[in-house]
Amino acid sequence: MKKITILWLLFMVAIATAKAADSSFILKTSDNVSLYVKISGKGIPCVFVHGGPGSNAYYYQAFQQAGPIEDQVQMIYYDQRGCGRSSSPANGDYSLGRMEKDLEEIRQHLGFTKWAVMGHSFGGVIITSYAHHYPSRVAALLLIHCTLNVNYSMESHIHSGIQILGIADKTPYLDTTKPTMQRVGMIHDLLTQKKLWYKLMFRNQYEKDLNDTIDNPIGKSNRDFANAVWNMPEYMKDFTALTKDIHCPVLIMAGDKDYAIGPDHYKSFAFPHTSIVIYHGGHAPFQEEPQWYAEKVIGFFKQIKY
Fold it and tell me: Domain count of the chain?
């Protein structure tokens, strides 16, 4: 607990000393949703699309504020509709097309002809579909431990959990007549009881505890999208089929122990122009190894012709 308190102090100092150009604002979308947006840093513009699904951008932003990446890149952080510090649509429109339109309205508001687009985890679904539909607006894609097939990644939770727990009778967890999320829930419950859940995503329990509390400073977080998305079949499609038609430069970063996504999931991606970086760890290299992570991301940006 003491270590976590010290880290919070460091985060607060970083935020307090952030560059003068930093700003945050609320963008009203064309369907009257209030999106929280923050701009920080300088250089090539890059929007960060958070995961969850239904989390918020702060879990990533907290580790980047006033850091080395922002010396090279102008980061745009935003919370998706129904997430974090953003509001929810009155009509319940959480469609993928509307999520992409939100990105376009942010880009247009900021006056960028094009920008780099970075996603983490579930954000991979959104940014891949966005790049497919708006190719002229995407200078580069950065897939940071991304899933492009949620069902594949949920099966990774199940199979990896079975191995972590050393379960002999696998039948109840591999019974495909039961809904996938029901079986995932069974595995998660057992991992939690055994205090082993962290092994799906992190190298130790401390890193998971830190991740679980990192967004405390923003207060109550909107979870409406998190509650809606699991009943929306369009998000559960296999988006790897789109990758062969996306021709911008792509950075793929994957973890060889990232069982939340599946360590080999990236091998199904078929982007024509990729740089692949393997992290020897779990789901959040920007948290566990921030210097290593920054070097890889900055190195990729230096190769981009913007």
Answer: 1
